[in-house]
Amino acid sequence: MAVTYKRLQHMMIEKNISNAELMRNAQISANIITKIKNGQYIALDKVESICRAMRCTPNDILEFIPEDGE
To answer: What domain range includes position 48?
Structure first.
């Protein structure tokens, strides 16, 4: 199963929040931003930090996508 953070990216656009601002508000590194852009898994504590900063739930920022054959 793959993960996508398109919901987070759309939310950031809607709220006019830059990557730098998210990094500052959620206290995450540029490495986490790169993982988000590449659809890689991030640690649950980072998801929590992002949700707190964006005032949302994990369902609002990420989605699991079944891979072929699943």
So the answer is: 2-65
